[in-house]
Design goal:
Layout lengths: L1 E2 L21 E2 L3 E8 L2 E8 L4 H12 L17
Antiparallel strand pairs: 1-2, 3-4
């Protein structure tokens, strides 16, 4: 089973990457993603059956290096 996803550009991206694929996006299975941080790894199992377009976007952006060398403001205790 597949779906078609729509990604609407809003604002400016912190890094430029291609828009994720939009056609024939699988709704089955999971994707394992590991975010490597300076505080340790965060392992995630992303379920396509729950949110296929979100999983597709995260997987595509991770492969394109979108998250590499970025600061997550929610993982800080300074400047909040």
């Amino acid at each position: 089973d597949t779906v078609t996803c729509e990604y609407t550009a809003t604002g400016e991206a912190s890094k430029q990457v291609d828009t994720p694929p939009t056609e024939n996006i699988s709704t089955k299975g999971t994707v394992k993603v590991t975010l490597e941080t300076n505080k340790g790894d965060i392992a995630m199992d992303l379920d396509r059956s729950v949110a296929p377009c979100t999983v597709n976007a995260i997987e595509s952006m991770a492969k394109a290096g979108y998250y590499d060398d970025t600061v997550c403001h929610r993982l800080t205790t300074q400047g909040i």
